[in-house]
Every structure is written in structure tokens, then in C-alpha cells.
């Protein structure tokens, strides 16, 4: 999961927002009617409501605090929370207060646009989006892009707005902006709009290779893979030593599952450890061991005295090629630096593959007790041991490794999280919940734990309201995180709010093409009687990951 953001804690809010008020307080005694006292009380109530996942209450409390303190930052915060809670009435009140208190700039215009979209006032929304798009620099159009991708009620509404903006010539005359909005049109599954944007970009930026990339992407999305390949071939011929362009072309081939072509593009031009690593990963994904062996031999021949990073890479390639003895030699030859600990962990994994489990576990125990190793490496040694025990179907050994890890690193969130997921896979939901809650005791704003626990309760229990509150807390911290939006949509579905759920799940899939999200969209559509449409998403999920657990459960449940 993405690195966890943190919600703004009360202490930080108080320090940033109320420093001037507290300074004034020292100059004169606080009276019962002092707005500072009242606003602090409202702010505390808002923060507690946020921590409980009660966004409506939090929005009202922050709005009260902003009124009492006459503070523009609190008015902005109240607006954001109300918009997240989909409380249009409070959002409008907070926005009005924000403007009256002197609010201005991109954030205000973006919030105005989101509220107008929510209310269905698309003309007003376009006015604020135009304001963003006409702002000099890149920040404005990026804000507008975010509003369209995250603020619209459904993909059709976002597409209508984007279509009007393209029609009126509001998109800035910048290649990066046009490519970004073209990518949004693709994510919204609007081929006609993509075609219009591509045509506009070709006219505005003739001869620009990255325009060809957008066109190739459009052809791929429309199933015209042969045409897309021809275009990518011509682009690759133009790329020269432009490493960034070559990576973009390779990524397009990767999306077509043509890993060999992607690797061939990266093989041209100057090479470094990054390009070698990417090439190795592509060949491994293609399971092309013949080509990977050639790359391995090439790397070995060019490495008279390989540095630690190169030795680690050679070990990883040899490991994938199942040349485990060679991999072990490379890993053990990593002399020091940050790569040393990764090499020791990989060496233990190789020993396990060589059926030398006792040696593997012994090496991990040594790393766990190595005082010279950094804490992260020692912690990871416990996690790897647990994973290898699980592969051995040694449930007791897996749990014992977690227990020893927690004895060495009490309440470590990574170990608790891994153990919690292990309990969930075994259908032991009470123990999974206990571990995830233990993380939240120490780190109340741990987004990964909030989302995991909320999703687990939504998916495996009937405690939907509790699940919703946990997911709301995660949404507050990372409102544009696709995994969290997926969890939010899923709990809405489980609560019977199917149409709302579908909007959120579609938005999550727009942000991230993921098998689990696609299977969720399919299941909701199936439950709404839209079975042909559902099958399309089940098939999309199959192409991404045919072994996905959520997909298998959805197919079993629906009989699709």
C-alpha cells in the first residue's frame, strides 16, 4: 500500500492555528465568553469526531471552530471535511465562510468546482475549472485534473465537463497538460473524447514523440493492437538515447503484455543498473528464461569487479533462473553497504529453495540477533521467516516467528500487520482484528491498518457501520487513494447502498487498474441485474490477475 499519510492531529492544528490567539491570551485573562476557549472546544470535538470516523459531526465542529476563531485555515479544513462527507449543505456554509475570511487561490477554486459538480451545476463548475486552467504554471491545471478525476459523481459527468473544456479551448497549450487530460479520458473509458484530444494534440504539437504515445495508448484501448505496435515501433526508432521516452514506450508495450518488446526497447541506448533491473523484471514477468539467461551472461561479462548493487542484481537474476548455487555465491559476495542486508535476506530465501531449510532458518536467526544490522533488516528477517514457515505449511512455526519478532520489536506495526493478514487468510477474524487494532492503539492514524481493518469488517462480518467509520478515517487522510476508495465502495455495497457503491468503485478503478477493484465493480453490477456489463469487468479482472481471491469469490457467488 502507499505510504500512510497522517491526519492533522489536534496538537499540530492548535500549534499552527491558535498561536496568535494563545499569545493574546497571555496578555489578558480568559473570560468565559473568550472565542479562543470556545473554538478550542469545537476543534477538540471535531478532531475526536474525525478519529471516530464521524465526518458529518467533524465537519460541523470544524465549521463552528472556524466561526468562533474567525480563522481561514479552519474554514478551509471544514470545507474539505464536509466535501469528503458529501455534506453539501455544510460544505456551502464552510465555503462561504472561507471566502468571507479572505480565502482565495487554487484550493478555493477547486473546492468551489467540486461543490458545483456535486450539486449538478455544471455551468458553475466549468467557471471554476476555467479559473484553474487559466492560472499560470502547472499547479492550476493539475488541480482541475484532480477535480475531474475525483470530484465528479460518475465518469459520464466528468467526461461531459472535460468535453466542454476541450470544446471551449480551455486546456492550456502545454503538451504535458494535454497528455494528462487525454489519459483521464482514457481512464473514463471515453474513446470518442480520447480521439478528439489526440487529434487536437497532433495538431498543436506536430512531430512530438509523446503525442504518438497517447495515440498508441488510444489504439490499444480500442483493441487495435496491431496499429498500436506499428506506431510504437516507429517511436522506438526515434527515441535514440532518450531514456525517459524509451521507458514510456516500454511501459506501453508492458500494458499490452508484450514484455519481450518492452525489454528490447530498454536494451537500446546506454545501460545502467536501473535499465538492467527493469529489463530483468520484464523478462522475468514474461517467463522468458532464455533471454534472461543472455542478459545474465551479458551482465556477468561486463562486471569484472561488480559493485554491491550489481552483485545483488546478478543474484536476483540467477535466483529467478533457478541457478540457486550461483545466486547464493552472488549474495554472499555482497561486501557491505545497504545492499548487504537485502543480500542476506535473499540468500536465506535461496537456501530455502535449495531445500536447505535448516540453514535458511539458522541464517535468519543470525540476522535477527546481529547487533550490527539495522533494525529494518532484523525486523524483515522475522517477517521472511514467517513467510517461509507459511510456505512449509508450518502454521505453528509461522506464528512463533511472529511472536519472537514482536518480542524483539514490541508492537511493531509491520509485524502486527503481516500477522493480522495471516489470521484473515485463515478466517480467524477476531485475531486479525486484534492485531490491526493493536496497531491503531499506538498509531491511531495508521492508514494501512485503518483501511485493512475497515475492509475486513466490511467483507467478513456484518459490522458495517463500524467498518464505515474506520474507512472514513482512512479516507480523511488519503481521499484519492484507490485502495481506500475501493474499501469505501465495498462497505457501501455491503450496506445495500449499491448505486452509491458503484460510483465509488468505478472511481477507484479509474485511479488504479486492479483485479480486486474490477471484481468488486463486476459483483455490484451483477447484483443490480446488469450482468453483461458485469462480465466485462470480471474479464478485465481475469486479465490482470486470474488468481485474485476477490475475483474467485465473486465468480463463485454470482456463477458468472
Automatic annotation (TrEMBL):
TPR repeat positions: 515-548
InterPro entries according to UniProt: TPR-like_helical_dom_sf (IPR011990), TPR_rpt (IPR019734)
Keyword vocabulary terms for this entry: Signal, TPR repeat
Record PANTHER family: CELL DIVISION CYCLE 16,23,27, CELL DIVISION CYCLE PROTEIN 27 HOMOLOG
Protein's recorded name: Tetratricopeptide repeat protein
A Pfam family the protein falls into: TPR_16
Protein species of origin: Lysobacter soli
Highest taxon of the lineage: Bacteria
Signal peptide: 1-23
